[in-house]
Amino acid sequence: MDLRALPKVELHRHLEGSLRLQTIIDLYRDAGEPLAARTLEELAPEAQVLRPMKSLAEVLTYFRVAQGAFRDYAAVERIAFEAVEDLANDNVRLAELRFSPDFLCRPHRLDWDRAMEAILAGIERARDLDVAVGLIAIVSRSYGIESAERTVEFALRYRDHLVGFDLADDEINHPPAMFARVLAPIREAGIPLTAHYGESTGPEYPREAVQALGVRRLGHGVSVAWDPSVTALVIERGVTLEMCPTSNDRTNAVPSLDNHPAQQLLQEGALVTINTDDPGLFGIDLTHELSVATDVLGFDHGELRRVTANAHEASFLPEAVKDDVRRRHFGWVDAP
Question: What CATH number corresponds to the domain at position 13?
Fold first, then answer.
C-alpha cells in the first residue's frame, strides 16, 4: 500500500504547529526583525522537536518561534493557505485545523476578528486544492478563565465558520470540571466539543472530560488505556480518540513508540484515529504517522482502514461534505 498516495483524513492538526521553517524565516525577515538563524538547518534546533523531551511543558516552549511568526494579517493568511497546501500535498482530503485565537494573536496584539478573517481568506485561496477543511477554536487553558470566556464568545460569533471547540495547553493544573460552566454556551449552541486530556495526565482526567464536559472526542487520550473502566467508558459513549504517535513519543506521553496504546485500544473497540498534532513542530506529515502505525505499532491494512473510517465518521464537518469526500476519495476504506 502506497501510504503517500492514499487519501487520508486528519482530525487533530494545530495551525500554529503547522508552519514551514522557510515561512518562519521569511515572515521574521519581512517584518524587519530577521532571526539569527538564516537557514533551515540553523532554525530547526530552535523551532522543532525532533527527539523525545521530558514533558509536554518542555515541548510547548518550542512553539515560541512559530508563535512569533504571526506578525500581521497577511502572515496569518499565508500560514493558513500553506497549511491547506501541505495537507493537499500529503493527499489529506478531509481535515480539521484548530487554533487558539488568544495564543495566535497575543504576541503581536492582533485583533481576533481580523485574524479570523485572514484564516478564512487563506483557506478560501486554497479551495481548488480539493481539501475539505473545518476549523476548531481552542481555549488555551493556561491563559485563564477570562481568556476562555472570551474564546467562547469568539466561537459563538463565528458559529457558521467553525465546526468544533477545543481545550488545549496545560492539563495538570486545569481539570475538565473547571471549564464546565464556561463551556455551557458552547454545548447549548450545539458546537461539538473535543478536549486535550490524557496526554500528560492520568485516566481520571479523560474520565472527567467525558462525564463533566460531554466531549465527543479526546485529543490524544493516551491514558484512557491505563484504566479498563475508562477504556470501557469511552467505548460505551462512542468517544473518538485523536491519537498522535510521534507527538506522544516526543512529549513523553508514552515511554516509547513501542509502548503506544493505539493498536491495543483499537482492538478493544475504541474509536482510534491517527493524526500529526503539529507537523511543522515535529517535522512530520500524516504519511509519516501512518508509516509509524504500520511499521512500529503493528497496524495491518484492515486497521489502517478502520482508523481512517473512524476519522471520517468522527469529523465535525457537515455530513453532506463528508459524504461527498468519501464518495470521491475513500473507496479504498470499504475495499475487502
Answer: 3.20.20.140
Neighbour tally for 58: CB within 10 Å: 14
Question: What are the two backbone dihedrals, phi and then psi, of residue 20, each rounded to the nearest 5 degrees?
Answer: -75, 145
Report the C-alpha gap between 304 and 330 in whole angstroms: 12
Alpha carbon separation from 2 to 8, 99, 186, 287, 328 (Å, rounded):
12, 31, 40, 9, 18
Q: Could you list the active site residues? A: 199
Q: Output the nine-digit C-alpha cell for 312.
A: 471520517
| R_g (Cα) of the chain, nearest Å | 19
The answer as to whether 109 is a domain residue is yes
How much of the chain exceeds pLDDT 90, in percent?
A: 99
The DSSP element (H or E) to which 26 belongs, if any, is helix 21-30
Q: Which domain holds residue 152?
A: 8-323
The single-letter code of the amino acid at 272 is: V
Distance CA 330, CA 328 (A): 6
Quick check: 88 and 130 in contact, CB under 8 A? yes
- Tens digit of each residue's pLDDT (9 = 90 or more) over 100-115: 999 999 999 999 999 9
Confidence of residue 335 (pLDDT cuts 50, 70, 90): confident
196 contacts: CB under 8 Å, gap ≥ 6: 166, 167, 168, 169, 171, 218, 219, 220
Rounded Cα distance between 144 and 184, Å, is 17
The number of domains in the chain is: 1
Mean pLDDT for the stretch of residues 267-285: 98
Residue 331 lies in a domain: no
Mean pLDDT, residues 27-49 taken together = 96
Rounded (10°) CA dihedral 236, 242, 246, 247: -110
Cα–Cα distance, 262 to 272 (Å, whole number) = 7
- Cα atoms found within 13 Å of the Cα of residue 184, Cβ hemisphere only: 5
CA 97 centroid distance within chain: 6
Enter the DSSP assignment of 137: E
Q: Provide the greatest CA pair distance for the chain.
A: 56
Distance in angstroms (rounded) separating the CA atoms of residues 251 and 200: 8
Residues whose CB is less than 8 angstroms from the CB of residue 211 and which lie 6 or more positions away in sequence, other chains included:
233
